[in-house]
Amino acid sequence: MAAGFLVAVLAAVAAILATLPYEKELVHTPLVRNTSLTPDARPLSPGAGSGLPYSRTTLHFNSSGTACEAWLYTPAQGQAPHPVVVMAHGLGAQKDLGLHRYADPFARAGMAVLVFDYRTFGGSDGEPRHWVSPRRHVEDWRAALAFVKGGGLGSQYDTDRVSLWGTSFAGGHVLVTAADLPPGHVRSIVSMVPHLDGMENAKANLRTRGLPAVLRLLAAAAHDKLRAAAATGLDRLEAALAPPATASTAPVTKAKAAASDSPAAAVERLLAALRPAAAEAVSWLRAAAAPLLTPAYVKLLGAPGELALMQLQPAEIAAYFSKHPKEYQGGWRPLVLARVALETSSYRPITSLERLAGVPLLFVSAAQDSLCPAAAVRAAAAAAPGGGAEYLELPCDHFSAYGGEHLKAASERMTAFLRRHFGMQEGQGSEQGRGKGSGVEVQPEQAVGRSGEEEEQAASGGAEVDAGDAGGLAGGGTSPAVDAA
Ligand SMILES: *[C@@H]1O[C@H](CO)[C@@H](O)[C@H](O)[C@H]1NC(C)=O
Ligand SMILES: *[C@@H]1O[C@H](CO)[C@@H](O)[C@H](O)[C@H]1NC(C)=O
């Protein structure tokens, strides 16, 4: 009786989650990949020949059998084999949403840079598109690192000197990826405005959004997950029932003929006879249920109250989109599979910190960060093994760290840090005119002191990076900045 009631309740919950009749903000139209915009379609330096101190090519590596696309920046100067910085983007983002702006100063300073897209994003393969998953993303990070360490880039690139750079969600992935690796495997790590603790994030969400809104997001996630599980289940069943690819034409031996009289063989024959009908029924069911089994997407970012993974103030949303390119590789849209909401609260990169002894770390935070609070990053930097990590706090919000003066301050500090741990001498292998700055530590006070400067100055500060190359990526060079994320 009680068991029957329980089953009925569970069935009702499953049915409601499977259809989520009241939810109007979920997106069920499939996110179709658009491959017409290739990664190389827009030159780094439009019309200006190649005046750049580096080149960029596109390549692919495999992550669990799926191709990930990457940009490889190779400095024109400096001695091969070049040290390599591996980079990837944050939550729901891809390489053409701003990573060029960080790769550029690194490549100018004589380092090779590999910027990759996670599976199902940008130029990388994988369906359904825009599947954000900490577990899968860390697999991609490990695959990228293994590819570089294994000599996949060729002899021009140093497999001994490899560092990781991650921002936002990836600021956590780099910690998880490098934890427990042998000493020196990764030379250093830059973790920028990092997501460190999903549990703390969940608590903060509960405080700011309230329980009903959190449950609403979790219901959307369960809905997406349930549909995916049902689709996978039916696909597997269909595959299992499909007739064997080639009928056996081997002559039946005497032993086999004898065995065919046994009861087991009789059952097998019966099943074989029923199989076509079952296969047909499952195929029919799969086709009939198809509209109910498409993935469900939620907005990557939205205003408070919206069904969105990140809820932001209008100014933050404006900052997010203001520097985006006009066209996105792969047909990117600010949508992610809803299922990610089930995975995030148990994802706690901060717990990897203690297993990073001996890896030099640079944490960069943003003082007004509403997503990845600076206080948590500061605490992580202080708690890093070996007496603490290096730390830089930018006087801005999360997304403003990707442009203008903040980008400049952060990239100067990062460049110096990465070079130092690659054992590169001051000035060596770096672009002329930049030599002095690239070897000099930028102290947090200095960076904070820049906050008073006007936005216009900040914009012109970024012009060195943007001129020509970055502007070209932004589409026609009309936008001063490539993008942000
Ligand atoms: C990726 O896997 C495919 C299929 O297994 C293979 O053909 C290809 O060479 C692999 N690519 C790399 C870069 O390992
Ligand atoms: C695909 O992308 C290209 C380049 O961004 C764009 O011109 C085209 O309209 C897109 N196609 C679709 C079907 O969205």
From TrEMBL:
<comment type="similarity">
    <text>Belongs to the AB hydrolase superfamily. FUS2 hydrolase family.</text>
</comment>
<feature type="compositionally biased region" description="Gly residues">
    <location>
        <begin position="469"/>
        <end position="478"/>
    </location>
</feature>
<keyword id="KW-0732">Signal</keyword>
<protein>
    <recommendedName>
        <fullName>AB hydrolase-1 domain-containing protein</fullName>
    </recommendedName>
</protein>
<dbReference type="InterPro" id="IPR050261">
    <property type="entry name" value="FrsA_esterase"/>
</dbReference>
<dbReference type="InterPro" id="IPR000073">
    <property type="entry name" value="AB_hydrolase_1"/>
</dbReference>
<feature type="signal peptide">
    <location>
        <begin position="1"/>
        <end position="18"/>
    </location>
</feature>
<keyword id="KW-0378">Hydrolase</keyword>
<dbReference type="Pfam" id="PF00561">
    <property type="entry name" value="Abhydrolase_1"/>
</dbReference>
<feature type="region of interest" description="Disordered">
    <location>
        <begin position="426"/>
        <end position="485"/>
    </location>
</feature>
<dbReference type="GO" id="GO:0016788">
    <property type="term" value="F:hydrolase activity, acting on ester bonds"/>
</dbReference>
<dbReference type="InterPro" id="IPR029058">
    <property type="entry name" value="AB_hydrolase_fold"/>
</dbReference>
<feature type="domain" description="AB hydrolase-1">
    <location>
        <begin position="83"/>
        <end position="401"/>
    </location>
</feature>
<dbReference type="GO" id="GO:0016787">
    <property type="term" value="F:hydrolase activity"/>
</dbReference>
